[in-house]
Amino acid sequence: MRTARLRRVTWEAGSVTAAQAREAALAFLHEVDDGHTPLPDRTREDVQLVVSELVTNALRHAPGACGLQVEMPPGGHAVRVAVWDTSADTPVTQPRNGGRIGGHGLEIVQAVSRAMTVAERARGRGKEVTAEIEIPRSAGHRTAS
């Protein structure tokens, strides 16, 4: 059984890209891969996708710093991704529209996550969006990359 593990990263305004945030999340996932039950490629890909979409939204819609927390709770049945930013504006999922360019980030996050929440940060210092990506219980073998 895995114990809770997490990584937190904070970036000053304008000092991170979505690609760098994905790399931070992937480095964490490599650390928690203890060799006994490796994470499935699909879980890794979904975590990177969620990180990319949430960090992109933070960079696009919020001034100031932002942060990322990636966590593997005890039991290892999910990976939690939380991204915080300095905007108090609640993100809104756009109605489905295949012809629209952009604006699909939250829709994508919700599609690959078993849960997504938005919470106000302490003392009104922005918000935190958290998504939980389930690890299939039958996971144990990774596909070739």
Automatic annotation (TrEMBL):
Q: Name one GO molecular function term.
A: protein serine/threonine kinase activity
One Pfam entry name? HATPase_c_2
Alphabetical UniProt keywords: Kinase, Serine/threonine-protein kinase, Transferase
Outline the extent of the Histidine kinase/HSP90-like ATPase domain: 17-131
Q: Which residues form a coiled coil?
A: none
CDD domains referenced in this protein's UniProt entry, alphabetically: HATPase_RsbW-like
InterPro entries (alphabetical): Anti-sigma-factor_SerPK, HATPase_C_sf, HATPase_dom
Protein name per its UniProtKB record: Regulatory protein
